[in-house]
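Contributing new records

If you add data, match the layout below exactly. Sequence lines come first and carry their own label; structure lines follow with theirs. Keep one chain per record. Anything else will be rejected by the validation script.
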Amino acid sequence: MGGPFGKERICAVVAGTTAHEMRADLLRGLKTTRTLEVRLDYLRNVREREAFLRWLSHKRLKATVIATCRTRQGGGLFWGNRKTQLKILAQAVRAGCNWCDVEIETAAHIAPADLRRALHPARLLISYHNFRRTPSGLPEIVRRLERAGGDAVKIAAVCNSIRDSVKITGITHARGNRVAVPMDEVGLAGRILALRAGSALAYAAVEQTTAPGQLSLQAMKHLYRAGYISRRSRVYAVIGNPVGHSLSPLLHNTAFRARQVDAVFVPFLVRDLRDFLQALEPFGVAGFAVTIPHKEAILRLLHDCDPLAARMGAVNTVVVRGGGRLYGYNTDYVGVLRSLERRMRLAGSRVLLLGAGGAARAAAFALGQAGAVVGICSRRPQRARSLAQAAGGQVVERSELRREFFDAVVNCTPVGMYPRGGSPLGSAELHCRMVMDMVYRPRETKLLQIARSRGIETISGVEMFLAQGVAQYEIWTGERAPEAAMRRAVLSALAAEEKSHGRSS
């Protein structure tokens, strides 16, 4: 069964500045969903708006089309007064729009019966937007919206914490005619999970984004498969700061689709671990991956931990068990060992690790157990000494690299990651047979380019990323991972990204 907007809960946002752009984007959106919002306030003048509505009136689309002409006061681009705004919305209704989004700043000045009469026969979505923060008193705001006499209500607000995102999605409980839109990067996961909570719609941009944190229609529909999310869907996540670069959602959502698992994997920008952990129950999170900078700090908040991960002092995988108990693992070491073991004998080899954070800790313990002699080189000497002592390795000063030889050098820092780029070492500091970079975006980092130019064998971070992700999937689901499908998806995405960057450079 569908909600008040029909079967499609993903709403494509069409926001061109010209009639031509609006037409093109609307037709593109229709290939993916039958629910669309046309942002008439984005059209740059009256002539373009009238041309678009004239075209729309001849199309008579078999779709749910929501007309929006949001004023500046309500967070939009329309400069005119309320009377003109309603006149434009009425024109959109005559052109075939069967819903109108009217912000509360306008609806509050018109009697509900008059508003309905002015926009008949369209149905009304009464909306509230806050582009600064999530306000307190959301239940009262909802009641105020409902008193305006619409058929559905919407709250969209910027989130400064994950707790804000939980509050906004909470307005949807037990009601089918409410739309919840957490905004900004902190609210990105909440945009998707609002559908699990019962939101009647989730918005996604065909081309031009109209709100902070708004996902593309392609991502919402195909990466997250948000249209299939229900209250029964399991939720998994990756947490970090930053986290927008992560390909973990692609990796795991591909696996869920291949194995027909009713689950979704989303990214959370996490500045405060406790803020995220308080959202586990309301969002239904069953497990999560941990990335920079939380791999070590998360240990203090776990209820129990795999002994090897505890020894390493870093966790990158967490299972949420009954009663919200958290159990930690580390699969980074799997990626390091698999990547290097295929190409060299580890026992007795000398391996230099760049960095002393969570990823370096996993590598140091794994390589030490495999019999390698591990060196630690870090810009933070105290952390390097601490890790070397814990893992049975030795500290290597950067000044020594020009005269020291290693069987392998492994970059465990984020230096080289897109879009910043760069290399943690220069050409004269690479004296080794092999270089491995844990950074996987891009596939060939500056460090690997330097190594290759020196005739040194290289290992892309993609190998480690895939190996640790496969191990994560199997820990969470207890099933064999569809490794081939996961590899194809990641390599295809990286190739497309590199091709795109090549065109734009």
